[in-house]
Amino acid sequence: MISTKQLTYFDAVARHKHFGRAAEECAVTQPALSMQIQEMERALGVALVERGRTIRLTDAGDQIAARAADILQRIDGLSDFANSRQAPLSGQIRLGVIPSIAPYVLPQVLPELQRRYPALELRVRETLTEYLLAQLEDGSLDVALLALPVEGAGFDTLPLFDDAFLLASPAGSAAGKRTRPTIDQLADAPLLLLEEGHCLREQALSFCSLRDIENADSFGASSLSTLVQMVASGMGQTLLPEMSVTLEAGRNDIDVQRFAAPQPSRKVGLAFRKTSPLKADFTALGDVILDARPPARDI
Amino acid sequence: MISTKQLTYFDAVARHKHFGRAAEECAVTQPALSMQIQEMERALGVALVERGRTIRLTDAGDQIAARAADILQRIDGLSDFANSRQAPLSGQIRLGVIPSIAPYVLPQVLPELQRRYPALELRVRETLTEYLLAQLEDGSLDVALLALPVEGAGFDTLPLFDDAFLLASPAGSAAGKRTRPTIDQLADAPLLLLEEGHCLREQALSFCSLRDIENADSFGASSLSTLVQMVASGMGQTLLPEMSVTLEAGRNDIDVQRFAAPQPSRKVGLAFRKTSPLKADFTALGDVILDARPPARDI
DNA sequence: TAAAAATACTCCATAGGTATTTTAT
DNA sequence: ATAAAATACCTATGGAGTATTTTTA
Q: Taking the C1' atom of D19, which residue's CA lies nearest?
């Protein structure tokens, strides 16, 4: 097979019409270059150069020189393309985010990502943890932003921050209570939850005693907005992730209270295949997510 | 620089998504292939493959695989192109022919060449020997069909055949003369010649004694047709190359006689730069010219 | 004769092979 | 536990260097 070395040498010969100067350009000796040209002619089975006191390309040599130049340019193009990709967070990255994070984090993160890494082509997909992990596994996602820990041995994770759960109850129900609520108070009213499959549902339940679980709404809302709406209408109380309160709880028909320590919380982070070579990119992505978070508000 | 070997190996990996099978296809061992892929990744500065129990291409790897396949196809194209050129008499050949040969040889030779070598793109140029040789030298011609020998050390020649000179005289002037004329008879009447620059003129003069030369027409015709016309009108006699008589002397107002031995003749052959790598092609070209000549006619 | 490319040879870099270890599922 | 790729180490091919010869103009 013709080597790129041969193409390079022959391209130089075609341009200089002189083995010595071509060799100089290629930073090799003339015999080395001559041998490669001869080998190339042998491999192709056609004379490329007419040798004499001064050399000349044959007709075939002319045509092959043009093709060689084109090929060399495309090979250089590989490096150029690769260079454009070797900067962190450049090229395509497919990010999955769970529904209980996406609307609260992406609005801040996406513009900042675009600003810092204009070469990044981020594809975002929002779905349940279960599907995110499956898509990570089958390669249709590169990284997922979700609640840790994740099941499955094939994944590596990058923890980012803790997101506290706050107690949301109908307005007035918390009135007069100075002290912060404790987990035990989950038993005081029906616990409204997201529908099956949302990790938030499982996490909320994990803070409950078995008896409380009977208290839980067995239908489940399909979004936090719906959940908040249900709380506001007095159907019960729920746990809201802190990151969601600005967006979801900026209304006066519900009360949101921070729990007394130890506060329940979920850990948010990135997950990716442990074989992924993009770990450095994910670290940079994590930094942007952390930087883009609004500062914690006192509640 | 990325080598074609690396591109080949990586292309195989991209298609098989498996180092071992890719290595098998490339007829090397898995470690050898692995090393080249690693070296390619190092050279490009990007991860191309995500390694695991089963491997997967990165986004950059995907894109580079597509480019690599394209480049490899173009490199294969070089060989294909060269193969189409390595058959004898294929591709472009630029042939020069002198005016006293072209109209008598080309009509037979060109169709036969086209028939035997359909891949040949012959460019024919007709001009005087002097210019043909200059164009051979500067590379704007590959080969010339002319009268040998040629001046100049840089040329190699391939003699093809002898072309006798016949005596053409006005009709009736040769009547009754049973015996063939001799060179001496050139003195019997004014000798009509082609204009300066035509080698035929010099060759004809070379057969004349100094005294005859005074006899020669000093203006000169610009073509053999004109010359024959002049002979027919009784202005004198001339020498005609045998190859031309069928075309030029098929008329009853001139007599054409073969000289007694030793017959004057010119040697016709091919000339080309001695550095030309197309010698084999020129030999094949010579064969076609010889084969296409009409059989000698008795005159 | 002078300039240029080819040849002869020597050496070393490196591609590739074998055996083994590490890693991922 | 097993399949697959990486690593370690060794060998050998061939690319490149130096010196020289051959060829062309």
A: A31
